[in-house]
Amino acid sequence: MTEEATNWQQLYPEKYLYDYYESVEPDEQQALKYLINFFRRIPVAKGSSLLELGCGPTVHRAIAASRYVGSIILADLLPSNLQAVQSWVDKSPHAHNWNAFTQFILQQEDVDKPNSDDIILREEHTRELIKSVRPADLMSSDPLGPENRGQF
Predict the structure, then answer these.
(1) Taking the CB of residue 118, how many other CB atoms lie within 10 A of it?
(2) What is the separation of C-alpha 15 from the centre of its chain, rounded to a whole number of angstroms?
(3) What's the distance, CA 142 to chain centroid?
(4) Long-range pairs for 1-5 at CB < 8 Å and ≥24 separation?
(5) Nearest-CA neighbor of 36 among 107, 104, 109?
(6) Following CA atoms 75, 78, 145, 69 in sequence, which dihedral angle do they give, to the nearest 10 degrees?
(7) What is the chain's Cα-based Rg?
(8) Could you tell me which residue, 9 or 20, shows the higher pLDDT?
(9) Which of 40, 56, 118, 126 could form a disulfide with 66 if both were Cys (CB 3.0 to 4.6 A apart)?
(10) Mean model confidence pLDDT for the chain
(11) DSSP code string of 47-101
């Protein structure tokens, strides 16, 4: 691997999050609205697990889903993406701030004026539901490893 490729992978999550997730852009607004409406329409069995395969360095879809599922597993190919997600789960001071996304999600769920307590509660709830942040390779016959075959 070239030095440039190595540097890119190390900087990727931070730069990507800064470039695309500093605010809730219109495309993400539409995607989150769709996801919330999907969960409202489709009955999810109590305690169901959600697997987000290819989560990247993001947690906003997990935050949106956390009201509707019993547990969440986040998986991605890049270790740096997994590290960015785990950093948020662990409340690292260097983790990306998802508050604007959480506020938007709460507004879509009919919370008129979400305050900081509402945002903190939703993010804490999401952290509690995230049971695993793990590697996944979609090019593999067992993307999550053979020990997870048939789990999802």
Answers:
(1) 15
(2) 17
(3) 22
(4) none
(5) 109
(6) 0
(7) 16
(8) 20
(9) 126
(10) 91
(11) T-EEEEET-TT--HHHHHHTTT-SEEEEEES-HHHHHHHHHHHTT-TTSPP-HHH
Q: Are 57 and 116 in contact (CB under 8 A)?
A: no
90-122 pLDDT, tens per residue? 999 999 999 999 999 999 998 989 999 999 999
Q: How far is CA 7 from the centre of its chain?
A: 24
Separation CA 5–CA 43 (nearest Å): 44
Contact in structure between 76 and 97 (CB atoms under 8 Å): no
Element (H, E) at 134: strand 130-135
**Measured at the alpha carbon of residue 50, what is the angle toward residues 96 and 68, in degrees to the nearest 5?**
85
- Residue 29 to residues 18, 46, 90, 104, 108, Cα–Cα distance (Å): 17, 27, 26, 8, 10
Q: Using the predicted structure, report yes or no on whether residue 5 has a pLDDT greater than 70.
A: no
DSSP 151: -
Could you give the count of Cα atoms lying within 13 Å of 89 in the half-sphere of its Cβ? 21
DSSP 6-40: HHHHHHHHHHHHHHHSSS--HHHHHHHHHHHHHHH
Structure tokens at 2: 């070239």
Question: Is the confidence at residue 26, as pLDDT, over 50?
Answer: yes
